[in-house]
Write the structure tokens for this entry.
Amino acid sequence: MHVVVTGGDGFIARNLRVRLRELGQQRVTSITRASTEADLFEALAAADIVFHLAGVNRPREEAEFVSGNVDFTTRICALLTDAGRRTPVVYASSTQAALDNPYGRSKLAAEQVLQRYALDTGAAVHVFRLTNVFGKWCRPHYNSVVATFCYQIARAEPITINDPASVLRLIYLDDVVDAFVQRLDGNGSPSGYVDAGPVYETTLGELASTLHEFAKRGSLMVGRVGDGLRRALYATYISYLPPAAFAYEVPRYGDARGVFVEMLKTPDCGQFSYFTAKPGITRGEHYHHTKVEQFLVIHGTARFRFRNIDTGAKHELLVRGGDGHIVVSVPGWAHDVTNIGSDELVIMLWASEIFDRARPDTVRAEVFP
């Protein structure tokens, strides 16, 4: 397909062009403010689908709303009509189109131009009324409070909140792009308004609090970031880190046996760490009542030993680095691990709960007394 993307240097378009490349779309023409009329004519004459993402939302003069949103859309539709190919169009409109303000009226008028194009030519037109799209590469200090806050907090700059209770309705960039690419077979989809994905609702104060939480890397604590709004906000925040912040240090606790390093903690899913042991060194020699640990040998050769503290039953096993074997510490069984190889032993460790010095649930005990 020959795909044309207007507003090609905008943050949504940049992400869309990356996705199109991933999907194997080799012929993608980006139309920007630097494109000439000839560029536009040539691109639209051969287009199989147009993602019309160009628009004006912060003009120097109000008249630019009409020229940038209505007139440009009219020009696109005229060129497509002249080409006679019933080219489908995906249009990035705005929820402001339902409001009586200069910007909203211009977006509504552009929608109506596209609807007439659809009626006149039989081409499919898909209109997305977007609101507060956020995600990577969005320009801070422009029209996205998420981008601005992410940029400032990632650089330890102060943020300004006038009304913490102010409600925000947000759409995540990746959901928008997913919805866009589903329209690639535009002629097979009916015209009309299309939802871009879930709309998340939060407040300005909650947004700031969540982003500040993400910035506290020194605590090693990371909250729930696996789904929903927090997943999208976490990815967005991380995308605004300056290169100098791509890496950070965590404490290393070392002694004659080796080192122990905590990597990541969660509020309800335990913590991750790793430790090393020099040849001949034994670590552990304790048991837990509730805590569960899972060990993955990364490098070296480890002997794990277990003893049931009630029955005295014993168990022993050998694990080599790279075997991909997970060893589990079972509550009520004393356990230790010994480096029986000639190289340093390196083991990754997940514990089902964060270590609490007041209630460590770690009781010293020899495994084979």
In short: The mean pLDDT is 96.
